[in-house]
Amino acid sequence: MGEPGQGFPTSFPWKGTHMEKPIQAIQENHRFTAEERRALYKAVLTRRDVRGQFLPDPIPDEVLARILTAAHHAPSVGFMQPWNFLVVRSGEVKKTVHDAFLKATAEAAEMFEGERARVYPKLNLEGILESPVNLCITCDRSRTGPVVVGRTHIPVMDIYSSVCAVQNLWLAARAEGVGVGWVSIFDNEALRETLGIPDDIVPVAYLCLGYVSHFFERPELETAGWQERLEARDLLYFDQWGQGPSEADAELTERVAGDQQAVRDSRFLDERF
Amino acid sequence: MGEPGQGFPTSFPWKGTHMEKPIQAIQENHRFTAEERRALYKAVLTRRDVRGQFLPDPIPDEVLARILTAAHHAPSVGFMQPWNFLVVRSGEVKKTVHDAFLKATAEAAEMFEGERARVYPKLNLEGILESPVNLCITCDRSRTGPVVVGRTHIPVMDIYSSVCAVQNLWLAARAEGVGVGWVSIFDNEALRETLGIPDDIVPVAYLCLGYVSHFFERPELETAGWQERLEARDLLYFDQWGQGPSEADAELTERVAGDQQAVRDSRFLDERF
């Protein structure tokens, strides 16, 4: 079927009686070109959570600035932009953060049983000292006052906004050839103390950034046999939780399964665009 | 300065004594081409939170499948992939969700004061009925058992993973020309009941998806004068919370400010790549 949404608008809803023509500037381009779409999916599919392959090469300021610009243009509830970006380059600060990691990961190792208890200590879980730049992304929950559009009923929305900033940054970094690893094995209070983060600010993500010798083809936990990639088709429900596809939804389900197989076979980017 | 990380690795850390050559398949391409990088930033910068410009045109299954594929390839803590994708097309279900929105937004309207109380009812805050596809992205906190690598000390990491899936989907949708709006003015319990979501599953995001007559150039809350875009340079700290740039960090700070001005002037994509 022909795909709408490409180029000029296919209808003008403000010509009816219920809407006025918008006075805002609008984007005229809708759908990206095949090459542009391929690039976006390439970032999504080749992004890795990098732990152990960091090079000491510095990240040029212009590159780091662009990555931060991507983060700053993430969506945020009520446009509150609740994030700060705490850039850590000090070896001393990194060392203290690393100590907090070591303490927490030793505690974590005790929580696993059987085969996983044996494998856990062999996993690469951070690159705090090796990566040239560490970055803590936070959430200032009172950034724009106590009442925020869209946060009135689901208070955690502001923290979700900071997570969106993380994901924007992660994809932009991948496009720049910069690896990012999200380290989450800390006591958050230790992190807060080390970085001087006040009580009313939430540390959302502690990231390690740097160029890498290589990006792995697949997630390391998948390769290590720790956890398989789930079948996306099994995660789809329709209209109600637990409800599988109707006949009308069968095509979507098959295409999702086909896409996943194409990703697995490294065919997706070449075949879909 | 020359930028490392482009093309072939610039060093081989596994040739030292402390690492072994990885046996995993690796990606040989690091930095994307200028055109590819431009496309990634284009998605980041032109993505909008769409409320009121949805067209009734259906989203082709192949497009929706690709968008869902992007979501499923988000990062997740311990590779737990805690998300489900509940596709809502039923008019009846949408109507009940919309009723929950109406109830919540009436409550929210009472919370604002002064000018904001006057403006709030005029904001476009959802497109539940107009968009052809609604999508609830959830988090199954027990997906891979009680102990998860990377979630041992920060339990909320699994929910953050589902948020990363939202942001992947949002950017992929923008590239496909599909608008996405995140509706968060609900009582989550009402949403849970309407969609039959069990108590141990967290509804993370309720999204409206569809082609649009247009994407706005800027966020609607910015245009409406509700909230300004913050200066990114003011959100940067160095090594400690609240600490401004050292002399060595001045260049980064200036570049972040310059990037933001370039975005504001619609020069960023053309000038940076």
Determine Rg of chain A (CA atoms, Å): 22 Å
Beta strands of chain A, count: 7
What distance separates the N and C termini of chain A?
Answer: 16 Å
- Measured as a percent range, the helix fraction of chain A is 25-40%
Q: Which structural class best describes the helix and strand composition of chain A?
A: alpha+beta
CATH class of chain A: Alpha Beta
Write down the overall mean pLDDT of chain A: 91
Contiguous runs where pLDDT drops below 50 for at least 5 residues of chain A? 1-22
Annotated CATH architecture of chain A? 3-Layer(aba) Sandwich
Strand order of the largest sheet of chain A: 2-3-5-4
Largest sheet of chain A, if any? 4 strands, antiparallel
> How much strand content do the residues of chain A show?
5-15%
The most extensive interface, with participating residues per chain, is: A-B, 153 and 153 residues
Quaternary organization: homodimer
Number of helices of chain A: 9
CATH superfamily of chain A: NADH Oxidase
The succession of helices and strands of chain A, N to C, reads EHHEHHEHEHEEHEHH
The figure for the number of domains of chain A is 1
**Which fold name is given in CATH as the topology of chain A?**
NADH Oxidase
Shape label of chain A: globular
